[in-house]
Amino acid sequence: MEDRVNGFIKKQIDEGRQAYIVCPLVEENEEINAKSVLELFEKYKEEVFSEYRVEYIHGKLKQKEKDRIMEEFKIRKY
């Protein structure tokens, strides 16, 4: 299922669209069986979407950094 979703995202990006993925965790949590945003970022940046520009954002970043990332997403840098 994950490969199918990632393939769909790649197709959308190749057609000129952008994508973002919502991750429920900022940091690892042993009680929840889910990957953290940092784990997913590394996986997507290095493996799954290595041919694209990938960035992450989460609520614990400083506001200035979040604003910069969102502005760069808006102008299609990522």
Question: Can you walk me through this structure?
Answer:
- This protein has 78 residues and is mainly α.
- The chain contains 3 helices and no strands.
- It has one domain.
- The protein has helices spanning 2-14, 37-48, 63-74.
- The mean pLDDT is 87.
Protein traits:
mainly alpha, 78 residues
- Overall body shape: flat
Number of domains: 1
Q: Which ranges are low-confidence, i.e. pLDDT below 50, for 5 or more consecutive residues?
A: none
The ordered H/E elements are HHH
Distance between the termini: 24 Å
What is the radius of gyration computed over CA atoms, rounded to a whole number of angstroms?
13 Å
Helical region count? 3
* Helix content class: 40-55%
| Alpha-beta classification | mainly alpha
Strand percentage lies at under 5%
Largest sheet: none
Report the count of strand segments.
Answer: 0
Mean pLDDT: 87
